[in-house]
Amino acid sequence: MNEKIIDDYVNEVTKEMGAKQRDEVARELRTHILDGADALAAERGTIVDDAIVGEVIANMGPARKVAALYPTPATFLGMKELKGMWDAIKALGGIVLAFLLVAGVLWVVAPDVLNNEMIQVIKGIIGALALAIAVIAVIFAAMYFYESRLKVPYEARLQRLEKSLNDAGSPLKIGITVAGTIIWLALLNIFWAKVPFLASFGDDPQFVLLLSPDFGGFVPVINLIGVVTIAVQLLYLALRQKWIPSLLEAALAVVSALLFVWILAAFPFNPELSGGIQSGIKVVVAIVIVLNLFDAAKKLWQTGQLFLHQQFGPGSAA
User: Fold this and answer.
1) Which tens digit of pLDDT belongs to each residue from 156-193?
2) Are residues 144 and 43 in the same domain?
3) pLDDT tens, position by position, 230-251
4) What is the C-alpha to C-alpha distance for residues 213 and 192, in angstroms, rounded to an integer?
5) Across the chain, what does the average pLDDT equal?
6) Same domain membership, residue 85 and residue 36
7) Are 257 and 142 members of one domain?
8) Rounded Cα–Cα distance for residues 105 and 37 (Å)
9) Cβ atoms within 10 Å of 6's Cβ, excluding its own
10) How many CA atoms lie within 13 Å of 129's alpha carbon, on the beta-carbon side?
11) 59 and 95 share a domain?
């Protein structure tokens, strides 16, 4: 029997594996092929030859598919998903190097050209590029950590967590919403009259209070909405008919939109803010109104699905 057939197949399967994994997989594949060849030859009453081995290998499938059954531990620079990001880092690094080379050449050839203003510009560009590289590197490292350490061993847990967060009646989601609402109300009541903001973006920026005393009239309304939000979340735990608290959530989203319409009309912000900043605040409030209306529509859709499922779905009384 010519073992080159086995060697070629095993080498093709293990060519992208690390040394330790390659040895383990190679031993496993050889044992499997030889055992399969012995069994097939015994079944046919013949000896193991190249044809028998070739048939066993053919039945195992292409080397590429077999290799996919053995996940290769990710390496920091070898992950295909991160290749584009690594290329971006190298490109930014190349631009930084190019700027440094240009600055160096100018320093040698024409030092008079490099005045303070140009030096500051070059420093600013290089600093911005360095910051971009640092941010991309952090994202790069986080993706690597997820892909190599979390995705495989914790993929099932992550999927359960995602499903739990998407489930309207999930205790985890309810807990997060209740805790977030309490924290938000506490911060609002303590700090709303103390929030500083830039009066303008001019040459002499000054900080003033963001909100005027008129905003105090909105605080009890916001507190009431927060308390009702917590109560609605608790209803998810108390009621089997999940569509009821879902419908109340949709109503709360509409009420929140109306609240921001009221805020936009009354505009309880510091009149010392510049016209540009006040216009920007109005745009932000308008966006919040639209987002609340979208959220209300989403909650209504969710309510309809929950109602239909609980009334006519599997296990319903109908």
Assistant:
1) 555 555 555 566 667 878 888 899 999 999 999 999 99
2) no
3) 999 999 888 888 889 999 999 9
4) 10
5) 79
6) no
7) no
8) 69
9) 21
10) 19
11) no
154: phi then psi, degrees, rounded to nearest 5:
-115, 15
Task: Output phi, psi for 280, to 5 deg.
Answer: -60, -40
**Domain co-membership, 58 together with 93:** no
Joined tokens for residue 139 = 């994202």
> Where does a domain end: 68, 90, 116?
68
- Which residues are registered as beta bridge partners of 198? 207
Question: Cβ contacts of residue 247 below 8 Å, gap of 6+?
Answer: 299, 300, 303
Distance CA(97)–CA(95), nearest Å, equals 5
Band the pLDDT of 317: cuts 50, 70, 90: very low
Place of tokens 């303008």: 200
pTM of the model: 0.51
Single out the residue in 68, 99, 122 at which a domain terminates: 68
Q: In terms of residue numbers, what domain contains 109?
A: 80-159
**Number of other CB atoms surrounding residue 299 within 10 Å:** 21
Same domain, 171 and 297: yes
Residue pair 222/188 in contact (Cβ under 8 Å)? The answer is yes
DSSP letter at 25 equals H
Q: Tell me, yes or no, whether 295 lies in a domain.
A: yes
Q: How many domains does the chain have?
A: 3
**Of 223, 225, 230, 224, which is closest to residue 187 (Cα–Cα)?**
223
Which amino acid makes up residue 189? N
Q: Is residue 73 included in any domain, yes or no? A: no
Closest CA to 295 of 265, 244, 259, 251: 251
Top mean pLDDT of 122-126, 185-189, 277-281 is at 185-189
Query: Distance between CA atoms of 138 and 117, rounded to whole angstroms?
Result: 32
Give the whole-angstrom CA distance, residue 278 versus residue 210. 10
Cβ distance 152 to 145 under 8 Å?
Answer: no
Do residue 142 and residue 186 come from a single domain? no
DSSP string, 44-92: HTS---HHHHHHHHHHH--HHHHHHTSPPPP-TTT-GGGHHHHHHHHHH
